[in-house]
């Protein structure tokens, strides 16, 4: 009777780890963006819709 070959287990841990790191990175970016908006000086994100025209 012929010997059966062992089947190597595929390594699928790398994409799972990359997915976790991506989720953590996305969370940190959103968290920092919220903090930046909360603690920005008054009027920092407000700009004029139409720039002033020099006459």
Q: How does this model look, in words?
A:
- This protein is an all-alpha fold and 55 residues long.
- The chain has one helix at 13-38.
- It is 47% helix and 0% strand.
- The mean pLDDT is 80.
- Keywords: Membrane, Transmembrane, Transmembrane helix.
- The chain crosses the membrane at residues 21-40.
Q: Helicity range of the residues?
A: 40-55%
| Poorly predicted tracts of residues | none
The biggest sheet amounts to: none
- According to DSSP, the number of beta strands is 0
Blueprint (SSEs and pairs):
Elements (H helix, E strand, L loop, with lengths): L12 H26 L17
Give me some keywords for this one:
55 residues, 1 helix, membrane, transmembrane helix, mainly alpha, single chain, transmembrane
Write a brief caption for the model.
The protein is mostly helical and 55 residues long. It contains one helix and no strands.
């Amino acid at each position: 009777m012929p010997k059966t070959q062992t089947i190597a287990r595929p390594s699928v841990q790398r994409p799972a780890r990359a997915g976790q790191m991506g989720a953590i990175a996305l969370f940190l970016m959103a968290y920092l963006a919220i903090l930046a908006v909360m603690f920005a000086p008054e009027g920092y994100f407000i700009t004029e819709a139409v720039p002033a025209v020099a006459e």
